[in-house]
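The protein record passed on below.

***
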Amino acid sequence: MDLSSNSLFEITPQVLLKAYACGIFPMAENADDPALYWIEPEERGILPLDNIHVSRRLARTIRNAPFEIKIDTDFEAVIAGCAEAASGRMKTWINDRIRSLYGALFEQGHCHTVEAWLDGRLVGGLYGVHLGAAFFGESMFFRERDASKVALIHLVARLRAGGFRLLDSQFVTEHLRSLGAIELDRPEYHDVLEAALALEGDFYSLETSVSPDSVLQLVSQTSKTGCSTA
């Protein structure tokens, strides 16, 4: 089975994990298209876990703790939020097959959410795939200012605490670039991916009730366990 080319064959959660281990991920053209296509960018976006940029304003927001951060409590609501139309994004690539496949991975413990709640409402968050010591960020959303950014910084702290080596962002947007995202060419990415898959990260090593100051301290530390291109 060649995972390097676009394909319409039946994709199972097991095939999906194999694809991630090969550096490939699926996307749909839009929410109404039932087909999925394999993507392997020439330039792959990552967020180096030892070089995250947190602005003073964002650090102040995190310290003020406007959101309750939860882990893995409502996958369906998170992926639904990620599929919503938003400013600058009127169409989504999250179709029913994506929802079903990643829902199955969530049930198997290979997919996780980081959620930002405010007054009992889910106002932002993200989801991604966990394999070895790699985390593949899939999508994030916000309904309140900074909700997705705060969720992402909490994710970084969790990954650092759990010994992860790679935070894959697939592509680099201006928003992610402002947080330190970089692009690796395909051979360099595969070297980093192979090293991360040889280890096992612990997504739950960090207490859910971790303090904002502890989150910022974890993110700001320089650690040899982070993903480095040096």
